[in-house]
Amino acid sequence: MAISVDSPEINRDMLAKAGYTFTFLSDPDAEVIRRYDLLHAGAGASGQDISRPAEFLLDANGVVRWVNLTENYWVRARPEQVLEAAKLVK
Amino acid sequence: MNIRRFNWHIWAGFLLSIIAFVSYGLFFVNFPITRDVPWANLILFMIATSLLFVGIRRAFAPDRSRLAKVGSSLLAVLGVLLFGSFIFMTFVFARWLPASEGAPRVGNRAPEFTLSDPNGKPVSLAELLSTPINVTSTGKPRGVLLIFYRGYW
Q: What percent of chain A is helix, strand and coil (3-state, nearest 5)?
């Protein structure tokens, strides 16, 4: 599942266009993004507060088993890295 | 215009600089192999710079007009500026990220939250951890992959 500062409407359009079927939640005030200490202040296209890219794999108890905090915002986790990490939550 | 005297090196070099600059975000970033290290764009920039260099040498041959010299110099400077901006954008600016020292670490419990899905329905992390992912699966999910995006789609 995913989180960004975009509104539910924008996410609905984006998901329809991209064909994604996973849960996509809206955090317009970056409240949860702040709670996770991922706020990238002023980094939006017009200086809005947004999230830095980040990926967490949680087990069934909600405990973090794998984290990827990229050092370069162009570079995200590769699918095979995530699949490898998924073996941790058998 | 006399086609033999047309300084194609300088124009090709300039055009290739533009292509090298825009093709990262528009194309090469879609493939991890050309995204994580932008080697394809760096090669394009090196070819572009060589063409600009040859073009400048030709423009400064004795039989060339002052206009050719000024115009070529301008294109070469713009091409090099694009190269410099690209290096800055991918190797410096893209790494200016917050430290996120308080972000959940391996072994921590992920902070609970409730946010709206695309239909405006509130969804909590606890629900995601306990609800089967679709009608055909039974029982609790094995886990949840939580992805934060920069947004502004």
A: 30, 25, 45
State whether A21 and A64 are in the same domain: no
CB nearest to B150's CB, from A23, A50, A62: A50
Do A37 and A5 belong together in one domain?
Answer: yes
Residues 23-82 of A with CB under 8 A from B: 23-27, 31-33, 35-41, 43-45, 48, 50-67, 69-75, 78, 82
Cβ contacts (< 8 Å) between A71 and chain B: which residues?
Answer: 95, 97
Mean of all residue pLDDT scores within chain B? 92
Summarised one tens digit per residue, pLDDT across range B38-82 is 999 999 999 999 999 999 999 999 888 999 999 999 999 999 999
Statement to judge: residues A10 and A47 lie in one domain: yes
Provide CB contacts within 8 A for B2, sequence distance 6+. none
Rounded to two decimals, what is the model's pTM? 0.85
The structure tokens listed for B39 are 């080697």
Domain count, chain A: 2
Residue ranges, chain A, pLDDT below 50: none
